[in-house]
What does this fold into?
Amino acid sequence: MDTVTNVLLFVLLTPLVAATVILLCGRQRGNLAATVSVLAAALVALASLHLFFRTWSGEAESVSLQWLSLGELEIRLGFYLNGVSALMLFVVSFVGFWIHVFSLGYMKDDAAKARFFGGLSIFMFSMLGIVVAENLFMIFVFWELVGFSSYMLIGHYFQQEDARGAAKKAFIVNRVGDFGFLIGIILVFWTFGTTSLPQLAEAVAGNPSAVTTLMGLLLFCGVLGKSAQMPLHVWLPDAMAGPTPVSALIHAATMVAAGVFFLGRTVFLYTPEALEVIAWVGVVTAVSAAIWAFAQTDIKKILAYSTLSQLGFMVAAFGLGTLFGLSQDGEHALYYGVGAAMFHLTTHAFFKALLFLGSGSVIHACHHEQDIFKMGGLLRKMPITGITFAIGVIAIAGIPFVAAGFFSKDAILYVAYEQAQIPFVLLAATAVLTAAYMGRLFFIAFLGQPRSENAEHAHETPWVMWLPLVVLAVFSIGGGHLFFYPPTLQPTLAQIVPHPEGSLHNMLIIFSLIASLGGLLFALLFYGTGAKGDRLERSLRPVWLLSRSLFGFDALYSFYVKRIQQRLADIVAFVDTLFINGLAVRGTAGMAGLGGIVARSLQTGSLHGYVWWFFAGLILFWLYAVGAFLTF
Amino acid sequence: MNPSFQLAFLDPLSSTLRNIHEGAPSLNAGLLLASILVPLLAALVLMALSGRSPVLVRAVARIGFAIPALIALWLTASYLSLGLDGRYAFMLRQPLGLEFLGIEFFIGLNGISLPLFLMAGIVGLAAGIYAIQSGVEKLRFYLVLLLIMHGGLMGVFSSIDIFFFYFFHEFALIPTFILIAFWGRAGRKTVAIELTVYLTLGAMITLAGLLSLYFLSGAEAFNMIALRNAIMDSAWQGTVFGLLLVGFGILVSLFPFHSWAPRGYATAPAPAAMLHAGVLKKFGLYGLIQLAWPLLPTGAELWSPLLLWLAFGNIVLIGLVTMAQRDLKLMLGNASVMHMGYAFLGLYAYSVIGVGGAVLMLFAHGLSVALLFLLADSIEKRTGTADMDELGGLGKQAPVLMGFFVAAIMASIGLPGFANFWGELSIFVALFQSATPWAIAPAVLGIVISAIYGLRAVASIFFGDSGEAIEGGDLTRCEKVPAILLLASLLIVGFWPKTLSDSLDAAVQESFAVQAAHAERSEVRAVEALSQLRYDEESIVKTNF
It folds into this structure.
């Protein structure tokens, strides 16, 4: 058996085995569950390093075996490892491991620790399944499974009202996206006769006209749900009701990026028209979410809207970059969008995981206080968390040459600039906004004086929690450089990430410098350090209200669910019950009544009455028959 | 790279089973017969045990429920080991002196009936274990009726002879009425009468359809194999198909003939609901798959536009009705009606993928709906209510029950990893290739609808914080065992669908090959196809008592 296959099989099955062990014998033993789960994550991380340094040559490889066969439908189970999936595997296994370690500290005293770690292992299994999947049906299988593990982990604190609603919302909104996604996959299957990724690439190359815009847009529906793009973004901020490590792993670094990864896997299935739609969705999501972040006071909510915005960046990067690549020559031009998107996905995974874990460390130290206006002065109280958080802010703001985020954002702005003006302007504005809202968060929560009892008594968290912060901080700075990646991944990154040249290069650097430092400076000047209240709310109320409104999406959906969907269901159910009751009356009481009438009329002895009742009975019987017919 | 991780570790088992079958060729056919007779015998013994200790009653019932399940597992493993490619096997034939009517006792299994037979065995055992520990009044009679149902169910899916196919269905149906009328919850009398009237009507229309099928086709015998060989005059096909569609349709709660089902299941005692919703209901679709479509292609064509809309009625309208339910058991009853819509769509698409998907769907749905009724009953027993507005916060006090319930809901809304997913997926794929590809959109809408009501049920029963203590704590061992049995079966087929799908695929493909031969009116080819593929005449065990 081939060794790459073996390693991938090991990577995929280890978390599944861990989850099974926890389910079977760890339910009452939280510490055992935690050990098993973290051990599995460590083995996955080691195995994938082994893959990158020893086993894999860097060439694309695929293997599969039959899973289900009915007539012409053949669904296969298999692995397809290429540059894109290898990079994703690196991100998932590496970031995943450190978040597991962090969870050891964060979830130490949780009552349902075993359920939490079991859920993390199921998540790792499902996510790795998406990463290595060889075909679209298999991706769909694991796509649904990550949805389930996300549901399970958002609902971890199921006693709380917000978690109860959020878990349900996340699953259902994702199913709405999967509606189009599944139809899209089936359309691909019947168009090309296969859903195997390498075979599809060949089939498309042989017959490019078979790819339709509808196909791409249907597939993109899945991305809308999973990567929380507008208008299906509403579930992600609510998902913050889950434990913070879950927010870091699933709702920031990996699962929500699965949509972007999926686009990267299927880049050949999108027409220019579809790519244009994709790009616009990404751009609008990026800028809107950045605006929404300004009205949030919950530290995790700010990060959640920031994640939405950054995912919008990635999706826009895919759309614009691929359009740009289509107009260029060169072997790897088609993959420029993938390169830009995947590079940002990678750096984002490092710095957003860092920021979320940092917020987790803060929340842990402040006894579950999440309001930034009740924090303050945390940099002095928790120096490691504070400094690493500052590094995260620098990374996401994209300060030139220092931050990983600079390099990846640079590639995106470059393709946007080359491709279309309005998207470029909007993305550039988003970059300024990003620096500003992250600055707001940092200056208010970490500087100044503590503004609550909880913040007053905060102190640095144990090493299992700060060590992952330090590691991720190193990658948040270094992740922009090639030498931070395993050698087998470097060629992919070097080839497919687009780079600006010459004067454009200089211009973009100057712009990034202004945007990042300008945004941070604005935040410092406008909000000040350790502010007690939101100045935007007081002095620029219309702007604050606009940000607060979330553009009406949540209100609209809530109106739809309560007033339209539920009423429709109630009305249909009422009509249905009418029929049931109608039938019950006719079928039982009606029959009995008829019998009674006949019996009584027989007893009167009057022929006149007999005939009269006979006709009445006949009419009743006829009504019964007609009624029954109507019911049928 | 070459995949070599096949299920090699099962090889010794399959070679043993092969050797046993070759060594004693009539053993497996005898076991098939035993799977029907043992529960009936156990029922007889229980009848005779009046006044004896409850321990003995329980022991006899346990044997009566367990043996058919074990036989079903054994026969499934043997069937898969023998590499039969979906052909009929384990056949047993006993003349009854009714040959002039074309009737004889004739049983056997093929790739289509095997999954349903296995499902009947597993669900029967689960319902039995649950019933034995339920502690209802007059437990002995309760168990007698359930054992009779179980025997009938094993008979339905192993019958090749159509008279017995129908007979076993009635055999299992009558105890259902009695169980509802005596052991049901509030309003049981009305519901029992309604159900009886409705299902008897359905059964009679079905009988009319089956008889006309037999007489008009001029088949040599009244069994599934002989009927396949017959050719139906197209002039009559529309009428006969209509009879079968309405008759079988009533029995499977095809919209708008569904209204008996939700209230019937909500009122029935849990084991009866498990056996009826899980297994007996599948009789109708199984009949349509084995008889109506293959024999009456012209009729099917005529009726399928209507069927499409009726199936949408099941999925979309009843889906909405399900969303509006407050009572958990009524919700499950409606959900079960909704899911039958998928199976009908699989038949509507009428391809190997569609029919195969429909059978997988029936298999999976039987297990998952039985599991859900079992858990709903456990919830009701603990809290005294099934009203979801009153329930809440159960998760804290009964985490295991919550775990099972979430898993069961996930299975029923088609999460991958459970068998239901493969059925739904295949049906969607088949629909896209049907005459009306747009039909996939309302069908897939069902996955959103079912997620909404399923997760809402989980949230309102288990999530939240409730101070009220529940009676009886978490799931007991006797409740856990049947739940694990059902869940494990769903997971095994969910993880490795090839277990059942390969022989199913072969059987359905072969069925289409026969039909194609019919379509060309070349009887020679049809007969050839039969003799080559359907079964080996020599292998039939012929008894002559």
